[in-house]
Task: structure prediction
Amino acid sequence: MPVYIYQILHVAGIIMLFMGYGALLARSLANSDNAAVRKLGSITSGIGLLLILVAGFGMISKLGHNFTAPWLIVKMVIWLALGGVIVLINRKPALAKPLWWSILGLGTLAAVMVYYVRFQG
Result:
């Protein structure tokens, strides 16, 4: 499969993850118990995480990167952190505002790892 397909799937996964978490955080901020929003946000973010993982590893292999490169390790840790955030969103709605900014920070750090750090070494 061409690398651009992996890139498209990776970006689609990122969009899905942030859309899903945005819906869940908005639900928490609105003090809503809407089960449909919780289900949609959880499914969307879960599929997004899976797409990010599969397409990311596909790109790593296709582009010939070393899996032990520091920027890749940081991105994998960020992926794990983003995967665990859903537990906090659903169980601790009072943390919605700090989680909103933390998720933004993690996404920004992931972008920095790819577009700045990767090209420095």
Notes: The two ends are 27 Å apart (CA to CA). Residues 102 and 108 are 10 Å apart (CA to CA). Residues 3-120 form one domain. The chain has a mean pLDDT of 94.
